[in-house]
Specification:
Pathway: tRNA modification; 5-methoxycarbonylmethyl-2-thiouridine-tRNA biosynthesis
CATH superfamily of the largest domain: NAD(P)-binding Rossmann-like Domain
Keywords: ATP-binding, Cytoplasm, Metal-binding, Multifunctional enzyme, Nucleotide-binding, Nucleotidyltransferase, Transferase, tRNA processing, Ubl conjugation pathway, Zinc
Structural class: alpha/beta
Helix content: 25-40%
Number of helices: 17
Organism: Thelephora terrestris
Number of domains: 2
Number of strands: 13
Distance between the termini: 58 Å
Main location: cytoplasm
GO molecular function: adenylyltransferase activity; ATP binding; metal ion binding; thiosulfate-cyanide sulfurtransferase activity; URM1 activating enzyme activity
């Protein structure tokens, strides 16, 4: 008897091989398959973990970033002793600890139009575990060009979504569903909105499951958008999506033949580069005050200062400056005049110094010749860096 798997592999994968429709041939298909995961973060880590455990033969990992302490809440392959290590190296180490039979290809670089096709072309299935629109369009276009299925996941706050693109002859691409990129201001990251780690675990595991179904032939070929809400009584909702659009500029009739991934400016298509919230909070103007100047003002006691913190009540409850009051931005902007009290200086603070600028504009528009109104330049992050290094950083 010629064994297609080692004796150890028969024992290791036996629980899934006995499943109806899976069998020995399903396991062999996994062993001979290759999956590339773009993004070794909150979605990529659980996806990689279960793909490795299931016995996928080759795993590619693409990520340019390094492990930070703020990652550990959800990026489960990374550990405290690998802080500062590249995410691909950290994930590769974890994968080898899970399953030494898996071959790991590590790409410590940012996926881009110039390298996407070269990296992705040797893999059977592509997983999009990234968090920005430009990369989603890039990976979708590359998948169409290479004729590969793309398993795309997303997660923010308590919610997530999942969809498989370019699956089979009629499977739509990302542009079929979203021909126009979202407005730049509508696209946000986990750093800005927050994320419950277990939500990325749910979506990342589902991405691994979709890849396994595709490889083993268990997938029924139907394309649907799966929506997940952790706080809903019925957390899963599936929306049937339309087939490939004939007039799609990428996968439609004649589309992929004219597709030029390398020379497409995906960042421009999505409205320009992602805003650097720290840098935009550092712009100097006469409506702003530095953290060190605010500290001196508070220490000298020459002025009574009205400190208005425009973060959400949840963030205010995590940490805040002494004597500050919490007025969420939406509340303040709805009726700015009611928050102008007396003639003492009004100083507005937020996390990074961006929402506070909006609040200052609203307060000034409601004030004729009232108090001096400024905001803390760089927000509480600047306060921590320049004044009090013991101030809690949760961002």
């Amino acid at each position: 008897m010629t064994l297609s798997l080692s004796l150890g592999e028969y024992q290791r994968y036996g629980r899934q091989m006995i499943l109806s429709g899976f069998g020995l041939q399903g396991q062999i298909k996994l062993k001979q398959s290759s999956v590339v995961v773009v993004g070794a973060g909150g979605l990529g880590c659980p996806a990689l973990q279960y793909l490795a455990a299931a016995g996928v033969g080759t795993l590619g990992i693409v990520d340019h970033d390094v492990v930070e302490s703020s990652n550990l809440q959800r990026q489960i392959l990374h550990t405290e002793d690998r802080l500062g290590v590249s995410k691909v190296a950290s994930a590769a180490t974890a994968i080898r600890g899970i399953n030494s039979n898996v071959k790991v290809d590590a790409y410590q670089e940012m996926i881009s139009p110039s390298n996407a096709v070269g990296i992705l072309e040797s893999y059977d299935v592509i997983l999009d575990c990234t968090d920005n629109p430009a990369t989603r369009y890039l990976l979708s276009d590359a998948a169409v060009l290479l004729r590969k299925p793309l398993v795309s996941g997303a997660a923010q706050r308590y919610d997530g979504q999942l969809c498989v693109y370019n699956l089979g002859e009629d499977g739509p691409c990302y542009r079929c569903l979203f021909p126009k990129a979202p407005e730049p201001g509508l696209a946000s990251s986990c750093e800005e909105t927050g994320i419950l780690g277990a939500v990325t675990g749910v979506i990342g595991n589902l991405q691994a499951l979709e890849a396994i179904k595709i490889i083993t032939g268990l997938h029924d070929g139907t394309t649907a958008l799966l929506l997940y809400s952790a706080l809903s009584h019925s957390p899963f909702r599936s929306i049937r999506v339309r087939k490939k659009q004939v007039n799609c500029t990428v996968c439609g009739t004649g589309g992929s033949a004219a597709l030029d991934v390398v020379n497409t400016d995906y960042i421009a298509f999505c409205g320009g580069p992602t805003r650097d919230w720290v840098k935009t909070g550092q712009a100097i103007s006469d409506t702003r005050i530095s953290a060190s100047d605010l500290k001196r003002m508070l220490d000298t006691g020459t002025h009574n200062v009205r400190l208005i913190d425009v973060r959400s009540p949840i963030e205010f409850g995590i940490c805040h400056l002494p004597e500050s009051i919490n007025v969420p931005l939406a509340t303040l902007v709805a009726d700015p005049a009611s928050h102008l009290v007396g003639d003492d200086p009004h100083i507005v603070v937020c996390r990074l110094g961006n929402d506070s600028q909006l609040a200052v504009d609203a307060l000034r528009s409601a004030s004729d010749a009232g108090p001096d109104i400024k905001d803390l330049m760089g927000g509480l992050q600047s306060w921590r860096e320049d004044v009090d290094t013991e101030f809690p950083a949760y961002w």
